[in-house]
Amino acid sequence: MRVLSVTSEIHPLIKTGGLADVAGALPLALGGMGVECRSIIPGYPLVMDKVGKAKPVESWPDLFGGAARLFSLQQSGLDLLVLDAPHLYARKGGPYADSSGKDWPDNWRRFAALARAAADVAAGKLAGWKPDLVHAHDWQAALTPAYLAYGPAAGVPSVMTVHNLAFQGQFPASIFPELSLAENAWSVDGVEYYGGVGYLKAGLQLASAITTVSPTYAQEIRSAEFGMGLDGLINARSVVVHGIVNGIDMDEWNPETDSRLAQIYNARKLAARKPNRKAMETRFQLESDASPIFCVISRLTWQKGMDVLAAAVDGIVASGARLVVLGSGDNALEGELLGAAARHRGRVGAIIGYDEGLSHLIQGGADAIVIPSRFEPCGLTQLYGLRYGCIPVVTRTGGLADTVIDANDAAVNAGVATGIQFSRLDVPGLLNAIHRTQSLFADRKTWSAMQKAAMKSDVSWGRSAARYHSLYSGLTGQ
Predict the structure, then answer these.
(1) What values do phi and psi take at 140, rounded to 5?
(2) CA 36, CA 30: separation in Å to the nearest integer?
(3) Fewest CB atoms less than 10 Å from the CB: which of 135, 199, 401, 428?
(4) Beta bridge partners of 368
(5) Which of 135, 100, 202 is nearest to 1 (CA)?
(6) Three-state DSSP state, 298
(7) CATH class of 270-455
(8) pLDDT at residue 46 greater than cutoff 90
(9) Is the pLDDT of residue 183 over 90?
(10) How confident is the model over 314-322, as a mean pLDDT?
């Protein structure tokens, strides 16, 4: 079975969040199930650095305002198709925004080009390889089902995966004539969305199947609270909506072999986590004592509940615990957390930015990871926490609810508890979850049992990839 994955980022070449991790890991997991997956990605500067002296396998004389070429290469076990369009991607800054954080004004054009190129490959443009199915990820790839439906590849089935419904790719109607779509695509059954062009809406409307990255999130987005204006469409297409929880790369995230750790360890040798704890204390300039260390590794945004966390820092410190924060996002929240670190020197440490190696060390040394999201399609940091025995403290929403077993009395007594869930997302609710965690931490036998149960959790891609394989098979008849 041949599958073309369409994504705006992919680990390890280019990453801003969990989308890259999923886009990089799922093809590898599917490869062991007889799926030949190729991923088409934009040729950002970091990506083009990997192309080297490879020769283009296809070209376009004019793709949304300039010439473009397609390169084929292998990287980290991935089979990649890189779309080199310098007029769209060869610029300083991130994949979606400039160095000041402002969205590129031509993002509509940049990602329409990616979708159009993917549809051309699906139609047979690439000699010797044509996919049986196209899998598009998030709004940046979501016009792909539209280019399929209204073009020569209309018979090729497609899957649209929503990693976060909050990001939809909405643009003014004035861009529609420049998309080179059929005139009848401008309709409520096509790409039109409240008088403009809706990229994610188009993908949800026109894909053969829709997946979200957890079963609970698949149900939540059918409500007005979580549906972000698209709940009506999602309910209308509910028969083709599937919730499939993400997995993680078990080799990349393995405490027994992780070179980023100060000391490797496993569930039988939890005492070996101590050097990681010490290294983390040094890095964040924390006092060294026996109190629990809570960590946060996150985008610092409202969705992630970071405003509640910032307001709760004084209470966390007053409880006797310590806190480390690694992340970036809203400038005001960054300032609040840096201020908290200055206010509570030795008890709170904060590093603004993202450091992949440091995130591994934190998971290997902290006692618990706090994830107070208002909504969370899946979440990956709690999966990393489970894998590393860093107990997740999470809101009961989306993929967090699906992947963490709350330490209620029944779960603790049965030896299956892997974390702490809470429903009330405000300062008292978060502090109550912190206090629950501290009580469990104080009982070393119970805490060790929770760590071992967490590290036994199946957070691999095995079962989830099998569900994707089953979905693909149903759509292609293979």
Answers:
(1) -65, -25
(2) 8
(3) 428
(4) 294, 391
(5) 135
(6) strand
(7) alpha beta
(8) yes
(9) yes
(10) 98
Q: What is d(CA 58, CA 72) in angstroms, rounded to the nearest whole number? A: 9
Q: Are 275 and 353 in contact (CB under 8 A)?
A: no
Residue 101 confidence (pLDDT) above 90? no
Given this model, what pLDDT does residue 100 score?
Answer: 86
The predicted model scores a pTM of 0.92
Rounded-to-integer distance, Cα 223 and Cα 248, Å: 28
Among 35, 218, 62, smallest CA distance to 134 is for: 35
Give 432-476 pLDDT, tens digit per residue: 999 999 999 999 999 999 999 999 999 999 999 999 999 999 999
- CB-CB contact of 364 with 258 (8 Å): yes
Name every residue whose Cβ is closer than 8 Å to that of residue 279 and which is 6 or more positions away in sequence: 262, 361, 365
Element spanning 97, H or E: none
Q: Where are the beta strands (DSSP E) in 17-67?
A: 36-42, 56-60
Q: How many CB atoms within 10 Å of residue 382? A: 29
What CA–CA distance (Å, rounded) separates 180 from 87? 18
Neighbours of 228 (CB within 10 A): 17
In terms of residues, how long is the chain? 478
Q: Confidence class of residue 229 from pLDDT cuts 50, 70 and 90?
A: very high
What is the CATH superfamily name and number for domain 2-247+461-476?
Answer: Glycogen Phosphorylase B; (3.40.50.2000)
The set of residues, in sequence order, having a beta carbon less than 8 Å from that of 212 and lying 6+ positions away, is 161, 162, 165, 218, 221, 241, 242, 243, 244, 377
Nearest to 5 by CA among 112, 81, 88: 81
CA distances from 382 to 284, 295, 460 (A): 21, 11, 13
- Are 51 and 83 spatial neighbours (Cβ–Cβ below 8 Å)? no
CA–CA gap between residue 472 and residue 187 (Å, rounded): 28
Residue 226: how many other CB atoms lie within 10 Å = 21
The mean per-residue pLDDT over the stretch 417-423 comes to 98
Whether the CB-CB separation of 228 and 234 falls below 8 Å is answered with no
Say what the pLDDT of residue 354 is: 86
In angstroms, the Cα distances linking 438 to 96, 366, 418 are: 40, 13, 14
Mean pLDDT of the chain: 97
Domain boundaries, the chain: 2-247+461-476, 270-455
Buried b (16+ CB within 10 A) or exposed e, 137-146: bbbbbbbbbb
What pLDDT is attached to residue 478? 85
